[in-house]
C-alpha cells in the first residue's frame, strides 16, 4: 500500500543542522542521519524512506551543512527537540550509514531508541580516540570530544560491517563493547559503507525487515548479502582489490565477474 503524503515540518533550521519531520500519523518513529559527502555544499535534499513509511513509521531526518558529524554549537538544541518529540512515540529506531551510523548511536539515548541499525559506523573521529584511523582527520579538526562521546544504552540493534575493512571492523568492536544488545552482521567485501551491495541490487527493504523483526535479525542481512553478491559489480571489485597481492588468480576472475555483472545490470535497465 502506498502511504498518503506526509505532513512535512521543519523542527530546526540552523546554519549547521536541519531537522525535518515527515508525519503520517503513525505511532513509530524512524530517525535517520546524514551520511558523509566528500563534495558537500550545504544541506542536501531529504525525502522519507518509502519502505519505512509503508511499514507504519513517521520519519525524522537530521541533516548537516558540513561534515561535522552533527557535533557543533547547535547539537544540544537539536538534541532537546529530538528528546521531546520522541516521547510522543511508542517506538523509536535510529538508522544511518558511516557518519550517519555514528549519529544513530550518538543520539540513541536522548531519543530513547529501542533499536539501532548502523552501516559501517564510527564510534569516534577524535584523534585521541582513534589514532589508528586517519580517514576523517579533516572533519575532526573542530570535533568536540566531550559533546561527541556516545552514551551507551541497552538498545538492541545491528551493525553491518565488511570484516575485510579493518578500520570499520575496529570501530564496530568498540561499539559492541558499549552496546551489549547490538549484534554484528559481517558482510564480506561489501566495502564502505557496507550496505552498497544490498541497496544497489534492490534488497534495501530487507534492512527494514531485519531491524523490525521481534529480535533484530542479523542472519537475514548476512543471507541477503550472500544472495546479492553474485549480482554486484561492487562486491567483485572489492574482492579483486583484496586478492591482488594474495591470490592474483582470484583477483583476475573477480574482475571478469565485475565486468560481466556490470554489463548485465546495464542491459536490465
UniProtKB/TrEMBL annotation:
Residues 259-269 have a biased composition (Basic and acidic residues). Keywords: Hydrolase. Residues 247-269 are annotated as: Disordered. One of its GO terms (molecular function) is hydrolase activity. InterPro entries: AB_hydrolase_fold (IPR029058). The keyword Iron-sulfur does not apply. It comes from the Bacteria. This is Alpha/beta hydrolase. It comes from Marivivens donghaensis.
